[in-house]
Automatic annotation (TrEMBL):
It comes from the Bacteria. CDD domains: ABC_DR_subfamily_A. The keyword Nucleotide-binding applies. GO terms for molecular function: ATP binding. Keywords: Antibiotic resistance, ATP-binding, Nucleotide-binding, Transport. This is ABC transporter ATP-binding protein. It is found in: Cell membrane. It is a peripheral membrane protein. Its main location: membrane. Gene3D superfamilies: P-loop containing nucleotide triphosphate hydrolases.
Length: 295
């Protein structure tokens, strides 16, 4: 039975280990407690090997946890996938090169009994103009948008994306997220794994930072940045104090005491980068206990 009040995702004590090539054990995911409410947009951010893909695989029922539980809309992941409530855009996974974009969407729509959604999902993935193009002639970014269109066919409540923009150039990445953003505005729950700090920053309201299989921070993306970065101040000094040996030392001392009366121009205050926060958090995580989930 589907629980209509259940969170989109609830994991408790999730753990997965693998046998390493040297015969030892790799703990890929450890003690992951996570609750994602319907309508949230959440980034799983972490360096290589942090456990993002393994977590995503368990959310989708593709990998069975060694310990702990995972529920999607109050049921097992497999049940949620069967019910069309969750679908995924994975890094790998085949598209048929000989099909056109539209034929691909039609084929999957027919499988789901949702041919009524073909035009709509093409539009949502910004593929309407590319509908007659053969898959093999599509760029990597366009193929990822096609996978996104396929994921939307069953009109899922939750879309899970595993590093969906890997290998795309900046323009393709922006186009992909533009399509995602338009769709997310309609209230879908979106969880995505990414290496790209900028993507979490630009798109996710909440960032779950993973390192060594654990959640090391879980907060509003703006809080992640604010908690660890502070702000950066840059400015241009008056020409009179900018000599061949650098900025006049006396003047710099005065700047430290009081900025305002010194005729400083072009003051630029910028938010601390999420990158700084990320480095601080992952460095911290390797030496201390996890900070733990904030929710
Ligand atoms: N099938 C497997 N067999 C052995 N080890 C594995 C397997 N799958 C994952 N691992 C290991 O588990 C750890 C977590 O891997 P995972 O792919 O979940 O990380 P990730 O955060 O998604 O990394 P990436 O960003 O590089 O994709 C890594 O140390 C990885 O080598």
């Amino acid at each position: 039975m589907t629980d209509t009040h259940a969170p989109a995702i609830r994991t408790s004590g999730l753990r997965k280990t693998f046998r390493a090539a040297d015969g030892g054990t790799v703990v890929a995911v450890d003690a992951v407690d996570l609750v994602v409410q319907p309508g949230e947009i959440v980034a799983f951010l972490g360096p290589n090997g942090a456990g993002k893909t393994t977590t995503v695989d368990m959310l989708l029922g593709l990998t069975r946890p060694d310990a702990g539980t995972v529920e999607v809309f109050g049921t097992s992941p497999a049940e949620a996938v069967r019910a069309g409530r969750v679908s995924a855009v994975m890094q790998t996974g085949g598209l048929l090169n000989d099909f056109t974009v539209e034929e691909t969407v039609r084929a999957i729509a027919a499988l789901h009994g949702r041919t009524d959604r073909v035009e709509l999902v093409l539009e949502r993935a910004r593929l309407t103009d590319l509908a007659p193009r053969r898959v093999e002639a599509c760029s990597g970014g366009e193929q990822q948008r096609l996978k996104f269109a396929l994921a939307l066919v069953p009109d899922p409540d939750l879309v899970v994306l595993d590093e969906p923009t890997t290998g795309m150039d900046v323009g393709a990445r922006q186009e992909f997220w533009r399509a995602m953003r338009a769709d997310a505005a309609l209230g879908r729950t979106i969880v995505f794994a990414t290496h790209y700090l900028a993507e979490a920053d630009a798109f996710a309201e909440r960032t779950v930072l993973m390192n060594h299989g654990r959640i090391v921070h879980d907060a509003a993306t703006t809080d992640v940045r604010a908690a660890y970065g502070g702000r950066t101040l840059t400015f241009r000094p008056p020409a009179a104090v900018d000599g061949t040996d650098g900025i006049d030392a006396d003047w710099l001392a005065r700047v430290r005491r009081a900025l305002a009366p010194l005729g400083v121009t072009d003051v630029d205050v910028s938010a601390a980068s999420l990158e700084a926060a990320f480095l601080a958090l992952t460095a911290e995580a390797s030496t201390t206990e996890p900070i733990g989930a904030a929710r």
